[in-house]
Specification:
Length: about 110
């Protein structure tokens, strides 16, 4: 039988990812992972693609210029993007303390090792 779990924000520290970018792994199962990512204004999530992971990014606060396969859009709170595996994507934070919840399927085991 599977058991549930809770994520208590204050019990987890931010991890530095790149200059101006920090993350917290919120929760995960083998098939799904939720990650909270905080950006300083001007911080860049360098364009990249995933070999096997689909990604959805949901903007919680601030604003981002998100690029998907060369198309750029400004995303604000409540907006989201979908980047299936093998889709080039990246983001630039347009406001201080911009926050996105990234969902990955399957789980990003590489993030658990850092």
């Amino acid at each position: 039988m599977n058991t549930g779990s809770f994520f208590i924000n204050d019990e987890h520290d931010w991890q530095d990812v790149e200059p101006g970018i920090q993350r917290k792994i919120v929760a995960h199962t083998p098939d799904l992972m939720a990650v909270c990512v905080k950006f300083d204004r001007g911080a860049v999530g360098t364009p990249h693609q995933h070999e096997r992971h689909d990604q959805i990014g949901y903007v919680v606060q601030g604003a981002f210029e998100v690029e998907l396969e060369g198309e750029k859009r400004r995303l604000s709170p409540g907006d989201a993007f979908v980047a299936p595996h093998h889709t080039m994507h990246g983001a630039v934070a347009l406001e201080p303390d911009s926050l996105v919840i990234d969902l990955f399927s399957p789980r990003r085991d590489d993030m658990l090792k850092s």
